[in-house]
Amino acid sequence: MNAKDVTFLEDTFKKFYFEHFDLLHVPDNPNQREFGYQKFNGGMNRHISLKSDKDLHLLLMQNKPSDVYCSNARYMFPNLPMAEKDWQNAEIIFDIDAKDLRKEHPKDNTLIKCSDCNEISSLNESCPNCQSTKLSFTTLTCNDCIKSTKDEVVKLKQILTDDLGIDQQNIKIFFSGNEGFHIYVSKSEYDDVGSKERAEIADYIMFRGSIPETFGFRKFNMNKSSLPKFEDDGWGGRLAKHLYGTKSNRPKILQEVLSGGYTLFQKRLEDFRDSIGIKIDPNVTQDIHRIFRLPGSINSKSGLTKIFVEDLKKFDPYVDACFIDDEEVEVVTNCPIEFSLKKKKFGPFNNEQVSVPKFAAVYMMCKGIASSV
Amino acid sequence: MVNLGNDEIVKYPFLAEAGKYLSDKGFSLEQFGTDPDLKKIVENAFERIITASEGRIFKSDFSSNNSALPLEIFSFLIAVILLKLSGMNTLIRRFSLAEARRAEKFLEKDLMNYQDATKTKLSLQILEELFSMTVEKTDKGFTILVRDYLKHSINFYEREWKLINRKVVNGKVHLTSHETVRLVRKELDRHIYTKINSSSSPDMIIGFETYVDKLKQLAKKFEVKTVESKEFPPCIKHAIEVLEKGENLPHSGRFMLATFLLNKGQTVEQIAPLFKNAPDYNPKVTIYQLNQLSGVSGTTEYKCPSCEKVKSQNLCFPVPACDTIINPLQFGRKRV
Question: Is A151 one of the annotated active-site residues of the chain?
Answer without folding.
Answer: no
